[in-house]
Design goal:
- With 354 residues, the protein is mainly alpha-helical.
- It folds into two domains: 184 residues, no CATH class; 156 residues, no CATH class.
- Helices cover 72% and strands 0% of the residues.
- The longest helix is centred in the N-terminal third of the chain and has 45 residues.
- The chain is flat, with a radius of gyration of 23 Å.
């Protein structure tokens, strides 16, 4: 009897161990995408994104390696409006300060591609990934490559003769595509790590709260890209910006819907309102989970989203009042982390029913 058990136990546990190894790899990729969101936020807020005038996915992995190469790249930058209108007279050292964040942004994207592709080939060749998952993971890899193309599509809009920055809607597209990719990778990793739902049958109400919180946060983050893309934070005045209700010039543009995308005062107000609504909804979700006595991963996710949403609100207010770039980047990264934790909660609740 014991020999039979010894022979049959490894096949039962091996698939789970293999799945968890693949899941850890996907979690690492998701973490790298999260870091990428922070690097991208920094390059956007500093205006560094336009410092590299071409898109060379392979050759561009190397920075300029000589003074002649640096001068050539700098000369290209001098041809765009951002230089003439914002950095006229900048020397090479100043240009390098713009160049390196964008170079790191693109290099990190290439590194994500390598970290995704090489293990994918290895796991597929050694049959450590279920066959049904290979097409899906290959699609995620293609979407990652497409994200690079979307990034260049965004950057190219800043070369327009009448522009000193990228178009906000293209920034929104680039950021949203990155978040969708992160969530796809994360959800797949969570499924491999815990294939059986952890939710109890009676948690349908909590699941609806979690869906509402996820929707509110997603909308708030999209609105946040327009705050960043238009530098709407610049219109905030600590002495007049704390009043209730929309600003007087909320409908300054015509048609009315254009204010939501091009009127800085309206964009900032919308983001603040959505942020408050999101905070209430996320806290409500955490309270419902804890009051219902949810245990295990559901409880852990509830505690995580509660802590992160409080931190997110504090970072948002601090960024608004101080206008410090580093705080704004932390606000963006924490928002992505909060969305990831809500995804974790929804994953644990996927089997919840009445």
């Amino acid at each position: 009897m014991s020999s039979t058990t010894t022979l049959t136990a490894p096949p039962a546990t091996a698939p789970l161990n293999q799945n968890r190894l693949v899941a850890l790899w996907l979690f690492a990729v998701a973490f790298m995408i999260w870091v990428m969101a922070g690097i991208g936020g920094y390059t956007r807020d500093t205006g560094s994104g336009l410092s590299i005038m071409d898109w060379q996915p392979i050759i561009g992995a190397l920075p300029p390696l000589s003074n002649a190469a640096w001068n050539q790249v700098f000369a290209l930058y001098k041809t765009i409006p951002q230089y003439h209108l914002q950095h006229q007279g900048m020397d090479l050292a100043g240009f390098k300060a713009l160049f390196w964040p964008e170079y790191l942004h693109r290099l990190w994207g290439r590194l994500i591609g390598v970290v995704f592709f090489v293990p994918l080939v290895y796991f597929a060749a050694t049959r450590k990934i279920e066959k049904r998952l290979i097409p899906w993971l290959a699609l995620l890899f293609v979407l990652g490559g497409l994200q690079g193309a979307i990034g260049w599509f965004m950057v190219a809009s800043g070369f327009d003769p009448n522009s000193t920055a990228v178009e906000p809607w293209r920034l929104t597209l680039h950021f949203s595509a990155a978040i969708l990719l992160l969530l796809g990778v994360l959800w797949t990793g969570l499924t491999l790590w815990r294939p059986i739902p952890a939710a109890a049958p009676g948690q349908a109400t909590l699941k609806r709260w979690a869906i509402a919180a996820f929707a509110c946060l997603s909308l708030t983050m999209v609105a946040g890209t327009f705050v960043s893309g238009t530098h709407a934070i610049d219109v905030f005045n600590a002495t007049t910006g704390a009043g209730m209700g929309p600003p007087p010039d909320y409908f300054a543009l015509s048609p009315w819907w254009l204010n939501m995308f091009a009127n800085k005062a309206a964009i900032l107000f919308d983001h603040q309102v959505l942020g408050t609504l999101t905070a209430i909804t996320v806290i409500g979700t955490a309270v419902v989970a804890l009051r219902a006595g949810a245990g295990g991963p559901v409880r852990d996710a509830a505690l995580a989203i509660f802590a992160l949403v409080v931190l997110q609100y504090v970072l948002g207010v601090t960024a608004l009042v101080s206008k410090l770039l580093d705080v704004g980047v932390a606000h963006q990264m924490n928002g992505v982390a909060l969305l990831a934790c809500l995804t974790w909660m929804l994953h644990t609740l996927r089997g919840a029913t009445r």
